[in-house]
Fold these 2 entries.
Entry 1:
Amino acid sequence: MSGFNESLVRETAEELVISDDEKSLIESFVIICQFLAEHPSAISWRTSKANPHKPTVVNQNDLFQLAKKYFEGYRRSDFPVEPSTIPDPMVSIIMREAYGYSNQECQRIKIEHQYAMCAENCVGNLLERYIDSVLRGNGWNWCCGEFIKAIDFLGKNNDGEWIALQIKNRDNSENSSSSAIRDGTKIQKWFRSFSKDTKKGRSSFTNWKNLPPLMQGYNLNEEGFKEFVIQYINIHKPKNS
């Protein structure tokens, strides 16, 4: 980790925190930067001709960029936004002709479907927030800010080896990028729910009982996730809702 300065990383993070809650993330940011110092190719950063440089963890200006993205990622609201896409009117025509819905019913379903899609888009992010709320302080560090490729949580095992957690909401939501395994890491993968009922005798559509061993023992479960989401939504709900 030539050039890595833990004190500089910590000081940079301390300059950007704005709440006591964020102070508990400083240690996570330091550990994430340690990982990037050892695995610089793991950084995910959009470059351009005007700005082709990817930040490093040994340069103060770069550290500021990383810390800014990290804490902004944490502060970002995951409350479902108002629908902004324009529905395809052909969908309503097909629903009317194929399934016998009235025009009025199609209009209602169209609006409800838009809101359902907005809600669905939030589940994965809220899942990470829930896991962080339980695992933070227990050796796991949330990679919020989305600047590490395909890794959601980082920690170390008893031998001091990096362990990376990859979290997905459903078993069919993983892509080729997120399934990549980098040298020097041991990635534990887990998804919360099944997309199809293909296994006879399955008692639940959720997958909490199959958490990776390193995530077990912290009472992560569907009921806790549900309570977390309800609390989060009510706290972040716009005042005019």
Entry 2:
Amino acid sequence: MSTLGIIGSGSIGTAIARLAVAAGIPVVLANSRGPESLADLVSELGPPASAGTREQAAQAGELVVLSVPLTAIEAIPAEILRGRTVLDTTNYYPFRDGRVAELDAGTVTTSELVQRHLAGAHLVKAFNNILAHHIPQLARPADTPERAALPIAGDDEGAKKAAAALIDRLGFDTVDAGPLSESWRFEPEAAAYTRMYLADPATPDDRILQAPGAPVPAAQVRAALARAERVRVADRTF
């Protein structure tokens, strides 16, 4: 495939970049601090990776990973992502993002809010329900027994197909969770969120960021999505 743009160099964006480079996919990384701040990471990743501005990452290929805090979304010019398939990893965390009235009221999902700002882009919710350190741990070649699956959601079927093809190449199966309005099924506290990928589901909250993961096959992800109950986001404090 063509070059993958990645806007956001935090733990999720960096983990995806590592998988892309390992799969032979060139990446252009960008963040809010400028290309020079990514020199060490790009050097570590090797020649398939380069640093650029947000505009350069957005225009590098047809697919772009957007992995920034919810509060940073409005700072990204919508026009640079127009026509692109955008993999949105965004979650809503009030302790970091402040309170967002529409999300607290449950009238929209996080990705519907992001899609509204990025009018003209084809948004696909992905990689938001798995811990960053589990991404490289659980990636496997296609047709590997017990390959892990990730849910995706989006309103454009073509974009979801393109996102699924990329995610397959990065090392995961996918499960279609429906439109963006259903993406709450794999957001924080929902049944298909991060804890299901823990090797030990009883791991205490204060240890999950270091705890090993275990592959969750597509059938299990599908079942988790089906039994999910919508979380009262207004009560969320983390």
